[in-house]
Amino acid sequence: MSDCLFCKIIAGEIPAPRVYSDDQVIVIPDINPKAPAHLLVIPRQHLASLDALTPAEDGLIAHIMRLLPKLAQEQGLPNGFRTVINTGRGGGQEIFHLHIHLLGGTPLPGF
Ligand code: AMP
Predict the structure, then answer these.
(1) CA pair distance 12, 16, nearest whole angstrom
(2) CB-based burial of residue 48 (10 Å sphere; 0-12 exposed, 13-18 middle, 19+ buried)?
(3) Do the Cβ atoms of 86 and 93 come closer than 8 Å?
(4) Starting at the edge strand that comes first in sequence, how are the strands of the sheet with 20-21 ordered?
(5) Where are the domains of the chain?
(6) pTM, two decimal places
(7) Right CATH number for 5-104 from 2.40.50.840, 3.40.50.1100, 3.30.70.1350, 3.30.428.10?
(8) Is 88 left (phi over 0), alpha (psi -120 to 50) or beta?
């Protein structure tokens, strides 16, 4: 997607520090962190949101779910972490390329 910010970051057209990357995802710090640790796990494949998922992405989603606790451990979050996926404008999604927020490093309020 030529006008997608995260596609441009994945392509290296816009710089962003990579905390982790593999053949399926990149992980970058959120530019406006909401907690001391705030990462974004971004699939390399352009998927607009959870609404775009099909069974073809089942392996990708499993990969991300299993990666999240490893990233949290690497970030030094032994007491836990929060994951957030905003979906659609009503869900607060601002960038329409699927991404998972990983937050921690301070006690997070309930909601
Ligand atoms: P969402 O509301 O779930 O779509 O979240 C989009 C997130 O992307 C926000 O938390 C932004 O702070 C973050 N963001 C926007 N631009 C960048 C960027 N260039 N690098 C890293 N994070 C970004």
Answers:
(1) 8
(2) middle
(3) yes
(4) 20-21, 25-29, 37-43, 100-104, 82-84
(5) 5-104
(6) 0.97
(7) 3.30.428.10
(8) left
Q: CA geometry: angle at 85 spanning 71 and 47, to 5°? A: 95
Q: Mind listing the pLDDT tens digit for each residue in 14-32?
A: 999 999 999 999 999 999 9
Q: Which atom of ligand 1 is nearest to the CA of 28?
A: 21
Distance 59 CA to ligand 1 centre (A): 24
Give CA–CA dist 42/33, Å, rounded: 16
Profile the chain (111 residues) by mean pLDDT over runs of 10 residues: 92 97 98 98 98 98 98 95 98 98 95 74
Pocket test for ligand 1, best of 28, 31, 38 (most atoms within 8 A of CB): 31
